[in-house]
Amino acid sequence: MKLTTDKHARKDQRVRTQKLITETSGMDLIQKSCPKYLSSYARAMWTKLVPILQASGYVKQADKGTIEAFCINYQLLRKGYDSIETDGVVTKVSKTVVNQRTGETYEDNAGWKRNPASQIIDSATAKLNSLAHELGLTPSARASLLQLSDDNDEEPNIKEMLNGISRSEERRVGKECRS
Question: What 8-state DSSP symbol labels residue 62?
């Protein structure tokens, strides 16, 4: 299942997409201006990503923290990559050896050590993948954003779900308050 408004796409996909747009229509779109504390690669990612997300109409201001985390992890990924480009994937580890007879010192190769930036890249890549899925930036995420159950009598209200309460929960709480 994908989200689309393309008139040539399947009707069920267009209906789901329209339902998502309708259910979240009262929510503010994500702000276009980049938060001041983002810098470098994170700022560049924000300026490229937010217009795409705004155009989709699916991502709202409530998702700002997720978008920030995505941009920050992108910066970590890029800075890690820059470090590897500069310093290499591995660095030589050496130890100072003193010649007991002459007292001279020299560096002896003790092996190789992985650049810590490679671990940063691993971690940031995993987080980016997870956050991209949450933001609907992957094909499978776009397909599952509005996976509505056809056999459910009561369809979920996306706006209420994003605000943390479902219709049935709202009714139950309302009945308890009236009692």
Answer: G
